[in-house]
Amino acid sequence: MVLGKPLGFEDAFSWVAIDDEKAAFTVVSYLVARVGGPIGTVTGPMHTSSGRDRLDGYLRGVGNQITGRIHQPVHVLLNSELVERASA
Fold first, then answer.
1. Shortest CA distance to 55 belongs to which of 18, 84, 15?
2. What's the maximum distance between 2 C-alpha atoms anywhere in the chain?
3. Mind spelling out the 3-state secondary structure of the chain?
4. pLDDT band at 11, cuts 50/70/90?
Protein backbone atom coordinates (compact mmCIF):
# COMPACT_ATOMS: atom_id res chain seq x y z
CA MET A 1 0.00 0.00 0.00
CA VAL A 2 1.42 3.36 -1.08
CA LEU A 3 0.39 6.63 0.55
CA GLY A 4 0.02 9.14 -2.30
CA LYS A 5 -0.29 8.57 -6.04
CA PRO A 6 2.85 6.80 -7.36
CA LEU A 7 3.39 8.71 -10.62
CA GLY A 8 3.87 6.31 -13.49
CA PHE A 9 3.07 3.28 -11.31
CA GLU A 10 -0.61 3.84 -10.57
CA ASP A 11 -1.55 0.42 -11.96
CA ALA A 12 1.37 -1.43 -10.37
CA PHE A 13 0.59 -0.65 -6.71
CA SER A 14 -2.36 -0.30 -4.40
CA TRP A 15 -2.42 3.32 -3.26
CA VAL A 16 -4.54 5.83 -1.41
CA ALA A 17 -4.52 9.61 -1.75
CA ILE A 18 -6.85 12.56 -1.38
CA ASP A 19 -8.17 14.31 -4.46
CA ASP A 20 -5.73 17.26 -4.35
CA GLU A 21 -7.18 18.86 -7.48
CA LYS A 22 -10.74 18.82 -6.14
CA ALA A 23 -9.65 20.01 -2.69
CA ALA A 24 -7.71 22.97 -4.14
CA PHE A 25 -10.56 23.79 -6.51
CA THR A 26 -13.12 23.75 -3.68
CA VAL A 27 -11.08 26.02 -1.41
CA VAL A 28 -10.07 28.47 -4.14
CA SER A 29 -13.62 28.68 -5.53
CA TYR A 30 -14.86 29.50 -2.04
CA LEU A 31 -12.22 32.21 -1.59
CA VAL A 32 -12.72 33.73 -5.05
CA ALA A 33 -16.39 34.24 -4.22
CA ARG A 34 -15.54 36.00 -0.94
CA VAL A 35 -12.16 37.70 -1.28
CA GLY A 36 -11.61 40.83 -3.31
CA GLY A 37 -7.83 40.58 -3.43
CA PRO A 38 -5.24 38.20 -4.79
CA ILE A 39 -5.30 34.53 -3.84
CA GLY A 40 -1.98 32.71 -3.88
CA THR A 41 -1.04 29.09 -3.54
CA VAL A 42 1.90 27.00 -2.41
CA THR A 43 1.52 23.77 -4.34
CA GLY A 44 4.60 21.82 -3.44
CA PRO A 45 7.09 20.29 -5.86
CA MET A 46 5.89 19.96 -9.46
CA HIS A 47 7.51 16.53 -9.79
CA THR A 48 4.82 15.14 -7.45
CA SER A 49 1.23 14.34 -8.33
CA SER A 50 0.04 16.37 -5.34
CA GLY A 51 1.89 19.50 -6.46
CA ARG A 52 0.59 19.22 -10.01
CA ASP A 53 -2.97 18.46 -8.93
CA ARG A 54 -3.05 21.35 -6.42
CA LEU A 55 -1.91 23.79 -9.12
CA ASP A 56 -4.52 22.44 -11.54
CA GLY A 57 -7.25 22.87 -8.91
CA TYR A 58 -6.04 26.39 -8.09
CA LEU A 59 -6.06 27.43 -11.74
CA ARG A 60 -9.48 25.87 -12.32
CA GLY A 61 -10.79 27.54 -9.15
CA VAL A 62 -9.72 31.04 -10.14
CA GLY A 63 -10.81 30.38 -13.72
CA ASN A 64 -12.04 33.43 -15.62
CA GLN A 65 -12.91 35.27 -12.43
CA ILE A 66 -9.39 36.64 -12.06
CA THR A 67 -8.37 36.85 -15.71
CA GLY A 68 -5.04 38.58 -16.24
CA ARG A 69 -4.13 38.50 -12.56
CA ILE A 70 -2.75 34.97 -12.39
CA HIS A 71 1.00 34.90 -11.99
CA GLN A 72 3.04 32.05 -13.34
CA PRO A 73 4.67 29.72 -10.82
CA VAL A 74 8.12 30.75 -9.69
CA HIS A 75 10.93 28.53 -8.50
CA VAL A 76 12.04 29.05 -4.92
CA LEU A 77 14.97 27.49 -3.10
CA LEU A 78 13.75 26.38 0.33
CA ASN A 79 15.98 24.46 2.72
CA SER A 80 18.30 23.54 -0.17
CA GLU A 81 15.40 22.01 -2.12
CA LEU A 82 13.99 23.53 -5.29
CA VAL A 83 10.23 23.98 -4.96
CA GLU A 84 7.68 25.93 -6.97
CA ARG A 85 4.99 28.34 -5.85
CA ALA A 86 2.56 30.65 -7.60
CA SER A 87 3.29 34.23 -6.62
CA ALA A 88 0.57 36.71 -5.81
1. 84
2. 45
3. CEECCCCCCCCCCCEECCCHHHHHHHHHHHHHHHCCCCCCECCCCCCCHHHHHHHHHHHHHHHHHHCCCCCCEEEEEECCEEEEEECC
4. very high
**How many domains does one find in the chain?**
1
In this structure, are residues 46 and 82 in contact, taking their beta carbons and an 8 Å threshold? no
Predicted confidence at residue 86, as pLDDT, reads 45
Residue ranges making up the domain that contains 41: 2-86
Tens-digit pLDDT profile for residues 17-76: 999 999 999 999 999 888 877 788 888 787 888 888 998 999 899 886 665 555 565 655
Q: What residue type is assigned to position 78 of the chain?
A: L
